[in-house]
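Open question from group meeting: does this chain pack into something compact, or does most of it stay loose? Before anyone orders reagents, we agreed to write out a predicted structure and look at it together. Recording both the input and the output here so the notebook holds the full record.
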Amino acid sequence: MTESIPEPASQSPGAERYKTLVVVLTVITTVITAIVASLQADANIRASTNNGASQEYAIQASGELHRQGLQSAYDINVFSGYLKDTQESLVFSLTALELQQKGDPQGAAASLLKAAISQARADKARQFSIFYTDPRYAPKTADGLPDMKAYLADSNALANDLVKSQNAAADAYNLWNHKADSYTSILTILAVAFFLFGLAQALSPRLRLLFAIFGMVALAGAGAWMVLILVI
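Structure tokens returned:
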């Protein structure tokens, strides 16, 4: 008498369909994870590049401010020396005229000599002053004053440009660094989706579908977040 060997019960089509669905979702999650990982690497590279550029611009701006401070101090000292010697020459000339009127020719001659010395120093300082040798700042008339506003604007122009570039690089660094952190969070969500899909494979058909739905929600949230970061 032979015993009949029971045939293994075949799984229902619904159970197989759910397994296929979970496999497809796992593949999609793998692809999205690879894309997000690439975007995170790109964001980290851009953040690092802009951070280095920001520091470089900051150093250049600091050096330019120091250089311009020394240059401005020299220019102002030369100009102030010119004004001082010019005023002294005028005072000595007036003193000589007053002494001449009082009948002191010797004192008047000494004052005139001092006036000539001061005027010679003033003329020499004028030759070295950027406010009289540079046509951008030189007076337009014989008794006019140098264009100090143009001098200050030109003096700070390079430093201001470097500071603007440094601010732009710093803003770009913050933007890409924030994106890199966001991609890390997305990868965490995708890891949760991987776990849910892997767990769904070992459960009963009904629970498999439930965990697959939870995984799809996590996958959809991660995908929407990734698209939002790309748009912004």
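Observations to bring back to the group:
DSSP finds five helices and no strands in the chain.
The chain has one domain: 15-231.
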